[in-house]
Amino acid sequence: MALVNENYLKLQSSYLFSEVARRVREYEATKPPRKIIRLGIGDVTEPLPAACVEAMARAVAELGRRETFRGYGPEQGYAFLREAIAEHDFKAHGCDIEADEIFVSDGAKCDTGNFQELLAADAKIAVPDPVYPVYVDTNVMAGRTGAAEDGRYAGLRYLESNKENGFVPEPPRGERFDAVYLCFPNNPTGATATRAQLAAWVEWARDCGALILFDAAYEAFIRNEAIPHSIYEIEGAREVAVEFRSFSKTAGFTGTRCAFTVVPKNCMARTAAGEAVALHGLWNRRHTTKFNGVSYPVQRAAEAVYSPEGQAQCRALIDGYLANAKAIRAKLESLGHACVGGENSPYVWAQAGEPSWDAFDRLLRGHQIVTTPGAGFGRCGEGYIRFSAFNSPETVAEAMARL
Ligand code: MLT
Predict the structure, then answer these.
(1) Which conformational region is residue 300 in: left (phi greater than 0), alpha (psi within -120 to 50 degrees), or beta?
(2) Could you give the count of Cα atoms lying within 13 Å of 258 in the half-sphere of its Cβ?
(3) What percent of the chain has pLDDT over 90?
(4) How far is the CA of 4 from the centre of ligand 1 (A)?
(5) Domain topology for 14-47+309-402
(6) Is there a shared CATH topology between the 14-47+309-402 domain and the 68-304 domain?
(7) Contact by Cβ (8 Å): 394, 383
(8) Which of 15, 17, 250, 258 for a ligand 1 pocket mutation test, highest count of atoms within 8 Å of Cβ?
(9) CA-proximal residue: ligand 1, atom 9 (nearest)
Protein backbone atom coordinates (compact mmCIF):
# COMPACT_ATOMS: atom_id res chain seq x y z
CA MET A 1 0.00 0.00 0.00
CA ALA A 2 1.16 3.52 -0.72
CA LEU A 3 2.00 5.96 2.05
CA VAL A 4 -0.67 8.63 2.40
CA ASN A 5 -0.34 12.31 3.22
CA GLU A 6 -1.38 12.05 6.86
CA ASN A 7 -2.19 15.74 7.00
CA TYR A 8 -5.46 14.81 5.27
CA LEU A 9 -6.34 12.69 8.31
CA LYS A 10 -6.34 15.84 10.45
CA LEU A 11 -9.21 17.31 8.41
CA GLN A 12 -12.76 17.20 9.61
CA SER A 13 -14.37 14.29 7.81
CA SER A 14 -16.35 16.40 5.34
CA TYR A 15 -16.19 19.83 3.79
CA LEU A 16 -18.86 22.13 5.31
CA PHE A 17 -21.02 22.41 2.20
CA SER A 18 -20.86 18.65 1.61
CA GLU A 19 -22.10 18.09 5.16
CA VAL A 20 -24.95 20.56 4.61
CA ALA A 21 -25.84 18.81 1.33
CA ARG A 22 -25.76 15.42 3.07
CA ARG A 23 -28.18 16.57 5.77
CA VAL A 24 -30.49 18.07 3.17
CA ARG A 25 -30.47 14.84 1.11
CA GLU A 26 -31.23 12.82 4.21
CA TYR A 27 -34.18 15.08 5.05
CA GLU A 28 -35.40 15.12 1.44
CA ALA A 29 -35.61 11.32 1.54
CA THR A 30 -38.24 11.63 4.29
CA LYS A 31 -40.57 13.37 1.77
CA PRO A 32 -40.91 16.84 3.38
CA PRO A 33 -44.38 18.46 3.36
CA ARG A 34 -43.37 21.21 0.90
CA LYS A 35 -40.59 22.24 -1.42
CA ILE A 36 -37.20 22.83 0.18
CA ILE A 37 -35.90 26.38 -0.38
CA ARG A 38 -32.14 26.65 -0.68
CA LEU A 39 -30.53 29.68 0.94
CA GLY A 40 -27.45 27.73 1.98
CA ILE A 41 -24.46 27.53 -0.34
CA GLY A 42 -23.84 30.75 -2.26
CA ASP A 43 -24.76 29.33 -5.63
CA VAL A 44 -26.39 31.61 -8.18
CA THR A 45 -29.82 30.77 -9.57
CA GLU A 46 -30.51 33.36 -12.26
CA PRO A 47 -29.55 32.81 -15.92
CA LEU A 48 -26.31 34.10 -17.40
CA PRO A 49 -26.38 37.68 -18.72
CA ALA A 50 -27.49 37.70 -22.38
CA ALA A 51 -24.26 39.43 -23.46
CA CYS A 52 -22.26 36.49 -22.04
CA VAL A 53 -24.49 33.86 -23.64
CA GLU A 54 -24.20 35.53 -27.05
CA ALA A 55 -20.41 35.88 -26.78
CA MET A 56 -20.08 32.25 -25.72
CA ALA A 57 -22.26 31.06 -28.61
CA ARG A 58 -20.19 33.06 -31.10
CA ALA A 59 -16.99 31.57 -29.67
CA VAL A 60 -18.37 28.03 -29.85
CA ALA A 61 -19.26 28.62 -33.52
CA GLU A 62 -15.67 29.80 -34.14
CA LEU A 63 -14.36 26.55 -32.69
CA GLY A 64 -16.59 24.65 -35.10
CA ARG A 65 -14.89 26.14 -38.18
CA ARG A 66 -11.44 25.10 -39.40
CA GLU A 67 -10.35 28.68 -40.13
CA THR A 68 -11.21 29.96 -36.63
CA PHE A 69 -10.57 26.82 -34.59
CA ARG A 70 -8.23 27.17 -31.55
CA GLY A 71 -6.48 24.54 -29.47
CA TYR A 72 -4.63 25.28 -26.23
CA GLY A 73 -4.80 28.93 -25.26
CA PRO A 74 -2.26 30.75 -23.09
CA GLU A 75 -2.37 29.22 -19.59
CA GLN A 76 -2.53 32.70 -18.04
CA GLY A 77 -5.60 33.64 -20.10
CA TYR A 78 -6.17 35.29 -23.46
CA ALA A 79 -4.87 38.85 -23.79
CA PHE A 80 -8.36 40.10 -24.74
CA LEU A 81 -9.69 39.10 -21.30
CA ARG A 82 -6.65 40.09 -19.24
CA GLU A 83 -6.64 43.52 -20.90
CA ALA A 84 -10.38 44.02 -20.31
CA ILE A 85 -9.96 43.09 -16.63
CA ALA A 86 -6.97 45.40 -16.13
CA GLU A 87 -8.79 48.28 -17.78
CA HIS A 88 -12.24 47.98 -16.21
CA ASP A 89 -11.61 46.40 -12.81
CA PHE A 90 -8.40 48.19 -11.92
CA LYS A 91 -7.21 51.14 -14.02
CA ALA A 92 -10.74 52.61 -14.10
CA HIS A 93 -10.62 52.60 -10.28
CA GLY A 94 -7.18 54.17 -10.10
CA CYS A 95 -5.36 50.87 -9.42
CA ASP A 96 -2.04 50.38 -11.10
CA ILE A 97 -2.47 46.79 -12.35
CA GLU A 98 -1.21 45.58 -15.73
CA ALA A 99 -2.79 42.85 -17.87
CA ASP A 100 0.24 40.59 -17.44
CA GLU A 101 -0.22 40.66 -13.66
CA ILE A 102 -3.59 38.93 -14.08
CA PHE A 103 -3.88 35.13 -14.19
CA VAL A 104 -7.20 33.81 -15.48
CA SER A 105 -8.34 30.58 -13.83
CA ASP A 106 -11.36 28.38 -13.30
CA GLY A 107 -12.20 29.62 -9.81
CA ALA A 108 -11.29 31.73 -6.81
CA LYS A 109 -11.83 28.66 -4.62
CA CYS A 110 -9.05 26.87 -6.51
CA ASP A 111 -6.76 29.89 -6.50
CA THR A 112 -7.22 30.75 -2.82
CA GLY A 113 -6.67 27.07 -2.09
CA ASN A 114 -3.61 26.72 -4.32
CA PHE A 115 -1.73 29.93 -3.58
CA GLN A 116 -0.37 28.61 -0.27
CA GLU A 117 1.80 26.18 -2.30
CA LEU A 118 4.13 29.13 -2.92
CA LEU A 119 4.81 29.55 0.79
CA ALA A 120 7.29 27.62 2.90
CA ALA A 121 6.09 24.45 4.59
CA ASP A 122 6.59 26.13 7.96
CA ALA A 123 5.15 29.51 6.99
CA LYS A 124 3.06 31.08 9.76
CA ILE A 125 -0.50 31.69 8.67
CA ALA A 126 -3.29 33.82 10.11
CA VAL A 127 -6.95 33.36 9.19
CA PRO A 128 -10.08 35.15 10.32
CA ASP A 129 -12.64 33.27 12.42
CA PRO A 130 -15.28 32.75 11.05
CA VAL A 131 -13.53 31.83 7.82
CA TYR A 132 -14.18 30.42 4.36
CA PRO A 133 -13.05 26.82 5.09
CA VAL A 134 -10.88 26.51 1.96
CA TYR A 135 -8.17 28.80 3.40
CA VAL A 136 -7.84 26.61 6.48
CA ASP A 137 -8.24 23.16 4.95
CA THR A 138 -5.64 23.72 2.24
CA ASN A 139 -3.07 24.77 4.84
CA VAL A 140 -3.93 21.67 6.86
CA MET A 141 -3.42 19.52 3.74
CA ALA A 142 -0.04 21.19 3.22
CA GLY A 143 1.07 20.23 6.73
CA ARG A 144 1.22 23.73 8.22
CA THR A 145 -0.90 22.79 11.24
CA GLY A 146 -1.14 20.33 14.05
CA ALA A 147 -4.27 18.44 14.97
CA ALA A 148 -7.65 20.08 15.41
CA GLU A 149 -8.85 20.66 18.92
CA ASP A 150 -12.23 22.14 19.66
CA GLY A 151 -12.61 23.19 16.02
CA ARG A 152 -9.22 24.92 15.70
CA TYR A 153 -5.97 23.63 14.25
CA ALA A 154 -2.80 24.02 16.27
CA GLY A 155 -0.29 26.24 14.52
CA LEU A 156 -2.81 28.53 12.80
CA ARG A 157 -3.47 31.97 14.26
CA TYR A 158 -7.22 32.69 14.32
CA LEU A 159 -8.23 36.34 14.16
CA GLU A 160 -11.53 36.67 15.93
CA SER A 161 -14.25 38.51 14.02
CA ASN A 162 -17.16 39.24 16.27
CA LYS A 163 -19.84 41.73 17.25
CA GLU A 164 -17.28 43.74 19.22
CA ASN A 165 -15.04 44.46 16.22
CA GLY A 166 -17.89 44.63 13.71
CA PHE A 167 -16.64 41.35 12.17
CA VAL A 168 -13.50 43.09 10.86
CA PRO A 169 -10.45 41.92 12.84
CA GLU A 170 -7.64 44.34 13.52
CA PRO A 171 -4.09 43.54 12.44
CA PRO A 172 -2.33 41.59 15.22
CA ARG A 173 0.19 44.27 16.21
CA GLY A 174 3.45 42.95 17.55
CA GLU A 175 2.93 39.53 15.97
CA ARG A 176 4.63 38.30 12.81
CA PHE A 177 3.05 36.11 10.16
CA ASP A 178 4.07 35.11 6.67
CA ALA A 179 0.55 35.40 5.31
CA VAL A 180 -2.94 36.42 6.30
CA TYR A 181 -6.16 35.67 4.44
CA LEU A 182 -8.68 38.51 4.28
CA CYS A 183 -12.03 38.44 2.50
CA PHE A 184 -14.15 41.56 1.93
CA PRO A 185 -17.09 41.76 1.43
CA ASN A 186 -16.74 38.87 3.79
CA ASN A 187 -17.83 35.33 3.32
CA PRO A 188 -19.53 34.25 5.57
CA THR A 189 -20.46 37.39 7.58
CA GLY A 190 -21.18 39.85 4.77
CA ALA A 191 -19.17 42.50 6.67
CA THR A 192 -17.22 45.04 4.61
CA ALA A 193 -13.93 46.77 5.43
CA THR A 194 -13.52 50.52 5.24
CA ARG A 195 -10.61 52.17 3.46
CA ALA A 196 -9.02 52.98 6.83
CA GLN A 197 -9.32 49.35 7.99
CA LEU A 198 -7.73 48.04 4.79
CA ALA A 199 -5.01 50.69 5.02
CA ALA A 200 -4.21 49.47 8.55
CA TRP A 201 -3.80 45.92 7.21
CA VAL A 202 -1.52 47.05 4.39
CA GLU A 203 0.59 49.10 6.80
CA TRP A 204 0.87 46.11 9.16
CA ALA A 205 1.84 43.78 6.28
CA ARG A 206 4.52 46.20 5.09
CA ASP A 207 5.87 46.59 8.62
CA CYS A 208 6.15 42.90 9.40
CA GLY A 209 6.83 41.53 5.92
CA ALA A 210 3.57 39.58 5.67
CA LEU A 211 1.64 38.73 2.53
CA ILE A 212 -2.08 39.58 2.34
CA LEU A 213 -4.13 37.04 0.40
CA PHE A 214 -7.14 39.20 -0.39
CA ASP A 215 -10.31 37.46 -1.53
CA ALA A 216 -12.54 39.98 -3.32
CA ALA A 217 -14.92 37.48 -4.91
CA TYR A 218 -17.92 39.53 -3.74
CA GLU A 219 -16.69 43.02 -4.67
CA ALA A 220 -19.41 43.48 -7.30
CA PHE A 221 -21.97 43.65 -4.48
CA ILE A 222 -20.46 46.84 -3.08
CA ARG A 223 -22.84 49.75 -3.63
CA ASN A 224 -21.47 52.10 -0.98
CA GLU A 225 -18.98 54.27 -2.86
CA ALA A 226 -16.75 54.76 0.19
CA ILE A 227 -15.92 51.04 0.39
CA PRO A 228 -12.89 49.91 -1.66
CA HIS A 229 -13.47 47.17 -4.26
CA SER A 230 -9.83 46.19 -4.43
CA ILE A 231 -6.93 46.05 -1.97
CA TYR A 232 -4.92 47.90 -4.66
CA GLU A 233 -6.99 51.01 -3.96
CA ILE A 234 -4.78 51.23 -0.87
CA GLU A 235 -1.38 52.81 -1.36
CA GLY A 236 1.48 50.37 -0.92
CA ALA A 237 -0.67 47.25 -1.41
CA ARG A 238 1.04 46.14 -4.63
CA GLU A 239 4.15 45.03 -2.75
CA VAL A 240 2.31 42.99 -0.11
CA ALA A 241 -0.99 41.75 -1.55
CA VAL A 242 -2.35 39.20 -3.98
CA GLU A 243 -6.03 39.56 -4.93
CA PHE A 244 -8.52 36.89 -5.94
CA ARG A 245 -11.58 37.73 -8.02
CA SER A 246 -14.29 35.67 -9.64
CA PHE A 247 -17.00 35.90 -12.28
CA SER A 248 -19.04 33.36 -10.27
CA LYS A 249 -21.09 35.81 -8.27
CA THR A 250 -20.44 38.88 -10.45
CA ALA A 251 -21.91 37.35 -13.59
CA GLY A 252 -23.53 34.08 -12.52
CA PHE A 253 -20.57 31.90 -13.59
CA THR A 254 -20.62 29.32 -10.75
CA GLY A 255 -21.29 26.59 -13.32
CA THR A 256 -19.45 28.27 -16.18
CA ARG A 257 -16.18 28.68 -14.22
CA CYS A 258 -13.98 31.71 -14.67
CA ALA A 259 -11.98 33.74 -12.17
CA PHE A 260 -8.64 35.49 -11.89
CA THR A 261 -5.82 36.20 -9.49
CA VAL A 262 -3.74 39.35 -9.49
CA VAL A 263 -0.07 38.98 -8.58
CA PRO A 264 1.74 42.32 -8.94
CA LYS A 265 5.26 41.98 -10.28
CA ASN A 266 6.75 43.74 -7.26
CA CYS A 267 4.93 41.60 -4.68
CA MET A 268 7.78 39.81 -2.96
CA ALA A 269 8.37 36.94 -0.56
CA ARG A 270 11.75 35.76 0.72
CA THR A 271 13.89 32.64 0.95
CA ALA A 272 15.05 31.30 4.33
CA ALA A 273 18.37 33.02 3.59
CA GLY A 274 16.56 36.34 3.24
CA GLU A 275 16.74 36.71 -0.54
CA ALA A 276 13.71 38.46 -2.09
CA VAL A 277 11.70 36.43 -4.63
CA ALA A 278 8.89 37.78 -6.84
CA LEU A 279 5.68 35.79 -6.34
CA HIS A 280 4.60 36.66 -9.90
CA GLY A 281 7.26 34.39 -11.39
CA LEU A 282 6.48 31.56 -8.98
CA TRP A 283 2.73 31.73 -9.60
CA ASN A 284 3.36 31.86 -13.32
CA ARG A 285 5.52 28.74 -12.99
CA ARG A 286 2.88 26.93 -10.97
CA HIS A 287 0.01 28.02 -13.21
CA THR A 288 1.73 26.99 -16.43
CA THR A 289 2.76 23.64 -14.93
CA LYS A 290 -0.53 22.64 -13.35
CA PHE A 291 -3.18 24.42 -15.42
CA ASN A 292 -4.02 24.56 -19.11
CA GLY A 293 -6.25 27.60 -19.16
CA VAL A 294 -9.96 28.34 -19.15
CA SER A 295 -11.81 27.39 -22.32
CA TYR A 296 -11.98 29.96 -25.12
CA PRO A 297 -15.82 30.26 -25.13
CA VAL A 298 -15.85 30.88 -21.38
CA GLN A 299 -13.16 33.57 -21.65
CA ARG A 300 -15.13 35.25 -24.43
CA ALA A 301 -18.22 35.13 -22.19
CA ALA A 302 -16.19 36.69 -19.35
CA GLU A 303 -14.91 39.41 -21.70
CA ALA A 304 -18.54 40.26 -22.52
CA VAL A 305 -19.09 41.13 -18.83
CA TYR A 306 -17.13 44.33 -19.61
CA SER A 307 -19.21 45.38 -22.64
CA PRO A 308 -21.75 48.15 -21.95
CA GLU A 309 -24.60 45.61 -22.23
CA GLY A 310 -22.75 43.11 -20.04
CA GLN A 311 -22.13 45.74 -17.37
CA ALA A 312 -25.81 46.75 -17.30
CA GLN A 313 -26.98 43.12 -17.22
CA CYS A 314 -24.58 42.15 -14.42
CA ARG A 315 -25.61 45.16 -12.40
CA ALA A 316 -29.27 44.20 -12.77
CA LEU A 317 -28.45 40.62 -11.75
CA ILE A 318 -26.66 41.76 -8.62
CA ASP A 319 -29.32 44.36 -7.82
CA GLY A 320 -31.81 41.49 -7.72
CA TYR A 321 -29.71 39.48 -5.27
CA LEU A 322 -29.10 42.60 -3.17
CA ALA A 323 -32.85 43.22 -2.97
CA ASN A 324 -33.24 39.63 -1.72
CA ALA A 325 -30.52 40.20 0.87
CA LYS A 326 -32.26 43.34 2.08
CA ALA A 327 -35.57 41.49 2.41
CA ILE A 328 -33.92 38.62 4.33
CA ARG A 329 -32.20 40.98 6.73
CA ALA A 330 -35.35 43.05 7.29
CA LYS A 331 -37.38 39.93 8.08
CA LEU A 332 -34.79 38.49 10.45
CA GLU A 333 -34.41 41.80 12.27
CA SER A 334 -38.19 42.09 12.59
CA LEU A 335 -38.06 38.71 14.34
CA GLY A 336 -35.45 40.04 16.77
CA HIS A 337 -32.30 38.53 15.25
CA ALA A 338 -29.33 40.89 15.15
CA CYS A 339 -27.77 40.79 11.65
CA VAL A 340 -24.74 41.92 9.72
CA GLY A 341 -24.25 41.82 5.96
CA GLY A 342 -27.02 41.91 3.41
CA GLU A 343 -25.86 45.37 2.31
CA ASN A 344 -22.94 45.39 -0.12
CA SER A 345 -23.02 41.61 0.21
CA PRO A 346 -25.20 38.65 -0.76
CA TYR A 347 -24.88 37.09 2.72
CA VAL A 348 -26.86 37.86 5.86
CA TRP A 349 -25.21 36.71 9.08
CA ALA A 350 -27.80 36.42 11.81
CA GLN A 351 -27.62 35.71 15.50
CA ALA A 352 -29.60 32.51 15.85
CA GLY A 353 -30.40 32.57 19.56
CA GLU A 354 -29.42 28.89 19.74
CA PRO A 355 -26.49 26.71 18.61
CA SER A 356 -25.89 27.02 14.87
CA TRP A 357 -26.54 23.39 13.90
CA ASP A 358 -29.76 23.37 16.00
CA ALA A 359 -30.93 26.45 14.12
CA PHE A 360 -29.94 24.81 10.83
CA ASP A 361 -31.94 21.65 11.64
CA ARG A 362 -34.93 23.64 12.91
CA LEU A 363 -35.04 25.78 9.77
CA LEU A 364 -34.66 22.73 7.56
CA ARG A 365 -37.14 20.43 9.29
CA GLY A 366 -39.59 23.08 10.54
CA HIS A 367 -39.58 25.54 7.64
CA GLN A 368 -37.98 23.55 4.79
CA ILE A 369 -35.31 26.26 4.39
CA VAL A 370 -31.64 25.42 3.90
CA THR A 371 -29.13 27.82 5.47
CA THR A 372 -25.47 27.43 6.46
CA PRO A 373 -24.65 27.00 10.16
CA GLY A 374 -22.23 29.67 11.35
CA ALA A 375 -20.33 27.15 13.49
CA GLY A 376 -19.21 25.46 10.26
CA PHE A 377 -17.07 28.53 9.54
CA GLY A 378 -15.24 28.48 12.87
CA ARG A 379 -15.59 28.83 16.60
CA CYS A 380 -16.65 32.48 16.39
CA GLY A 381 -19.48 31.45 14.07
CA GLU A 382 -21.20 29.42 16.79
CA GLY A 383 -24.64 30.83 17.53
CA TYR A 384 -24.93 32.35 14.04
CA ILE A 385 -26.62 31.23 10.86
CA ARG A 386 -25.84 32.41 7.32
CA PHE A 387 -28.58 33.13 4.79
CA SER A 388 -27.57 33.42 1.15
CA ALA A 389 -29.53 35.81 -1.08
CA PHE A 390 -28.84 33.76 -4.21
CA ASN A 391 -32.32 32.81 -5.33
CA SER A 392 -35.24 34.31 -7.21
CA PRO A 393 -37.15 37.15 -5.49
CA GLU A 394 -40.30 34.97 -5.42
CA THR A 395 -38.51 32.11 -3.68
CA VAL A 396 -36.90 34.43 -1.14
CA ALA A 397 -40.31 36.04 -0.46
CA GLU A 398 -41.80 32.59 0.11
CA ALA A 399 -38.97 31.62 2.45
CA MET A 400 -39.40 34.80 4.47
CA ALA A 401 -43.16 34.23 4.66
CA ARG A 402 -42.48 30.79 6.14
CA LEU A 403 -40.48 32.25 9.05
C1 MLT B 1 -20.34 29.78 -0.14
O2 MLT B 1 -21.51 29.42 -0.05
O3 MLT B 1 -19.67 30.12 0.83
C4 MLT B 1 -19.74 29.81 -1.49
O5 MLT B 1 -20.57 29.26 -2.43
C6 MLT B 1 -18.48 29.11 -1.49
C7 MLT B 1 -17.79 29.18 -2.79
O8 MLT B 1 -17.98 30.11 -3.56
O9 MLT B 1 -17.00 28.27 -3.00
Answers:
(1) alpha
(2) 28
(3) 96
(4) 28
(5) Aspartate Aminotransferase, domain 1 (3.90.1150)
(6) no
(7) no
(8) 17
(9) 109
The domain limits of the chain are 14-47+309-402, 68-304
Residue 66's φ and ψ, nearest 5 degrees, are: -55, -45
Tell me which architecture the domain covering 68-304 has in CATH.
3-Layer(aba) Sandwich (3.40)
Pocket of ligand 1 (CB under 6 A): 41-43, 109, 187
Q: In angstroms, what is the span from residue 63 Cα to ligand 1's centroid? A: 32
Query: In angstroms, what is the span from residue 215 Cα to ligand 1's centroid?
Result: 12
Task: Name which residue sits closest to atom 1 of ligand 1, judged by CA.
Answer: 42
Taking the whole predicted model, whether its pTM rises above 0.90 is answered as yes
d(C-alpha 141, C-alpha 6), whole Å: 8
- Report the atom number in ligand 1 closest to the C-alpha of 40: 2
pLDDT (tens digit, 9 = 90+) per residue, 211-248?
999 999 999 999 999 999 999 999 999 999 999 999 99
Which residue has the least CA distance to atom 6 on ligand 1?
42
**Is the distance from CB of 348 to CB of 339 less than 8 angstroms?**
yes
